[in-house]
Design a protein that fits this description.
The strands form two sheets. The protein has an eight-stranded antiparallel barrel. By secondary structure, it is of the alpha+beta class. The protein contains four helices and 15 strands.
């Protein structure tokens, strides 16, 4: 009995050592294979296939529509916009690890709002993966007990290293999103959003709430808020897992989006 107990203790100690090192800051594990831009995987529930390229920007067309008086073009204000990606621990040893909060601090893009109705409305957003920030205490604190742990500097560094390796940041440095269709009525809209990540593009249905400026003053701010779920497997990424699945992260990543945009007179 002592030997069995000692064996279990040794196994627990080994797991703890793994979790306390670079793997404790588990972001996303390296994919089993590295898909090319034309690779197609089977999407999970809530996602559908789309062309592997998101296509050219609509900004020039939106700017021309604004010049014709058909609507207003807005540029994303990175300083007052907020995107938070939540990564959730899984497996029987999950309690030893951490949930994670990843923040987008340099969001770019544009939004077009028609003068009347929703016909022609659209949004384009993008950010660089190597610009992401991870597990800032002020992001974790409001989320309650499941995010109450405080990852160490080495945990955060491990999470970042695993994340960038998993998504092959040198080949695929950007996540880009653009609407392909808009339904509903202001202020509540349903976007068909094409998300391009890791050389794959998937279509997601995303509900958003849009608060339009009262007038056309130069400093007027358009605000768009929504949430979506990204499944790593839909984009050819294998969720992190070690020790036969005793430590893992969930396939689903939840994303909270709060985009502030100001009137624009040119495309970037």
């Amino acid at each position: 009995m002592r030997r069995r107990g000692a064996g279990r203790s040794a196994a627990s100690a080994i797991a703890a050592l793994l979790l306390g090192g670079a793997l404790a800051g588990c972001g996303i594990a390296p994919p089993a294979t590295t898909p090319t831009a034309t690779t197609v995987t089977t999407p999970g529930a809530g996602a559908s296939e789309a062309p592997s390229s998101p296509g050219p920007s609509s900004c020039t067309a939106w700017l021309a529509a604004q010049q014709r008086g058909e609507g207003r073009l807005y540029r994303v204000d990175a300083a007052t916009s907020q995107v938070r990606i939540h990564v959730f621990r899984a497996g029987r040893l999950a309690k030893v690890g951490h949930n994670h909060v990843i923040g987008v601090e340099r969001l770019t893009g544009q939004v077009f709002v028609p003068t009347d109705g929703i016909a022609g409305a659209g949004v384009e957003l993008a950010f660089r993966l190597d610009d992401l920030a991870i597990d800032k205490p002020e992001w974790r604190a409001p989320l309650g007990p499941e995010f109450a742990s405080t990852p160490s500097a080495s945990d955060v560094a491990g999470t970042r290293a695993n994340l960038l390796r998993a998504v092959d940041v040198e080949r695929f440095p950007v996540i880009a999103m653009r609407s392909t269709a808009v339904a509903g009525a202001f202020p509540v809209l349903a976007l068909k959003l094409a998300v391009n990540w890791h050389g794959q593009t998937r279509l997601l249905d995303v509900p958003v709430r849009v608060v339009r400026p009262a007038g056309d003053a130069g400093g007027s701010v358009l605000r768009t808020q929504g949430a979506l779920v990204l499944r790593q497997s839909d984009f050819g990424i294998t969720p992190f897992s070690i020790l036969g699945g005793l430590l893992a992260i969930q396939d689903e990543l939840t994303v909270d989006v709060d985009v502030a945009a100001v009137p624009a007179v040119a495309c970037d």
